[in-house]
Predict the 3D structure of the following.
Amino acid sequence: MHKPLGYFSYLKGNKAQVFKYNICLLSCMVVLGIIKILLVSQNEELIHCNLKYEYMSQINFKTCNEEIKDTITEIAALEEVEAIYPCQYTITNCNTLFAGLDETTYLVDEHFIKEIMRRMDAEIVEGQMPQQDSGRALISSRVKEIKKYTDSLAIDGNKDVYYEGIYKSSECINYVPTTITDYTLSYLILPVLGREIQMNEKINSIIQGKAILSNREWAQKENTLVLKSVNENFNIIMIIITLMTALTAGVLSYLHYRERQGEIGLLSTLGYSHQWIIKRITKEVIISTTMAALGASGFLGVFCKLFNTFINEPRGYALFRVDTHIILLILTIALFMMAFSSVPIWMMLSQKQWIYSIERKPL
């Protein structure tokens, strides 16, 4: 009995068909992989927006009235509160690749700034800590990278504020050491270490809707809602693209093996069983799909490297990477495509009438 040609010998004679199949799969994997990479990086951007609530809480009162003084005094007396500082702040947009982050500039006492730097274990990497009421700012390295602030460029659009120091942080927060003597609508609260949850619970029971408390739990809920919506949209896109590609790949595979009736008939005539023929064709599908998956992984790796080198790193954006999420996505698509391509072929080859008819076709 003659040994049939191996897969790569078959490949030489069927370049057009294999090329169409591989390009179909590779395109699907690359498109969905790039979308997933973008979503993962932007998720990281959004999470950075709320890192500040790991170290402090913020109260914003709705209206200015006499009750604020009593409320703040009661909060300051809590044993879970280490210190509370009046502040003023402005928020402007800080655009990344696709996400829009909030660049927040706090006008707050110098003692608070030094304490929050200590808690974050952040160091000043350029310049120095501005003096109280100097009108100068301490800005994060992330903001500096994204907005390219210079000594002559006003911070946060404020004509009177320029930076004097830069601290290492992925947050988009600037601090201006400022003396605020009167009661204001906004306050920053430093909890006693390890007692953040208890402090926030007691503050909520005190303010009772008179103010908005922003803390770690609130930030996590906000992030969860945003990420849930983004992931749901991605899953819908993935299902649509995958189904369309699977249908295309399945049709291409079916037509391809319909065109190889002569070869299959010859193998059957030579005595190879239907099971052997099915296993051989399944192996061809697996190898072709694996080649497409490896090609997609390589393409995505190069894409991330180039984008990080020329776009993300110079501008301070979250880096792209081919991580576990991307690898699992490619494997899922590959397995789905193999099943969608193999099942119609198995059904076709399992029909004895079809095999019987091609065995008697002239070669």
Observations:
- The longest helix spans residues 216-259.
- Strands lie at 57-61, 81-95, 100-108, 124-127, 136-140, 162-167, 173-177, 186-191, 211-214.
- The two ends are 18 Å apart (CA to CA).
- Confidence is low (pLDDT under 50) at residues 1-13, 353-363.
